[in-house]
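Tokens help. Our protein:
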Amino acid sequence: MHKHNNMYQILVKPILFLFDPEKVHHFTFSLIRTLSKIPGVSSIFKSMYVVNDKRLERTVFGLSFKNPVGLAAGFDKDAKLYNELSNFGFGFIEIGTLTPKPQAGNPKKRLFRLKQDKAIINRMGFNNGGVFEAVERLKKNKGVLIGGNIGKNKVTPNDEAVEDYKICFEALFPHVDYFVVNVSSPNTPGLRELQDKEPLTKLLTTLQSMNKAKNAPKPILLKIAPDLTNEQLEDIIEIVAETKIAGVIATNTTISREGLQSKDKNEVGGLSGKPLTNRATEVIRFLAEKSNKAFPIIGVGGIHSAKDALEKLDAGADLVQLYTGFVYEGPKLVKKINQEILKQTQK
């Protein structure tokens, strides 16, 4: 049973890590898609990685999740592979970040592996095919719980940003289970300024009023940066209370470069992976304690082991998400986390 668990580490990862990370990403997508088309292969993936157990089920912001381990946004930006990726044991998949118009993102090379640090720096810049293309793909959903992560186009000035979020919200509404408002990527110039109290309140209030006008409103979450001060985090708690959004995703990538070893450590962009573990957990704990657990939190940032995931859950997260840990550890990480949660449940 244990053998296939290490196949990724011993065989697959060393080969993949020889090549440019962005090319590998596209190659991996093609490979998973091609393999998944072979009859029976999806069932094999499922039998290897999916842990089905009633005790893993979670109801959060009114949605029922098969298990609390999700795939973070940025991996399946364009909703091209969510059905296949769900076979690796994820309880939910967040697609995006999507923008109204397609955009190429920043010039390549824009994705860097920091192997010594078990980290990644990216400055992708919301490269995506646009929200309307993604909508067409989401129509082929075979029962995967989907989050839709939305942003603004680079060319849209901040004072018109609300319009971009409105377009994405409206287009995605019938096709996703929850929304994530991304104002925390460091790779769209000026985007993080939308985290300031006034513009953020306005943005969320606008989306909430559109949401309330629907027959069945959907949960709207806010994804925040790990670089916010305690004072800013207190603002976030107030904004959630005021706008009554469903919850917070903590956290996005960091612009900090503290304690890194790898040669690419000074590349511009957002840092994800192991160096983010403790800060992301601190932010979760601060939000949970200071708000008296007033809203659900999805914990993300540097989860590379089951222990890392449990720390986030203990700190106050209701669900967790992987990205960099999934790249470094492979799909067995999803399974290990779910198995460990079950062990804790039995105690």
About this structure: The CA atoms of residues 123 and 269 lie 4 Å apart. The two ends are 24 Å apart (CA to CA).
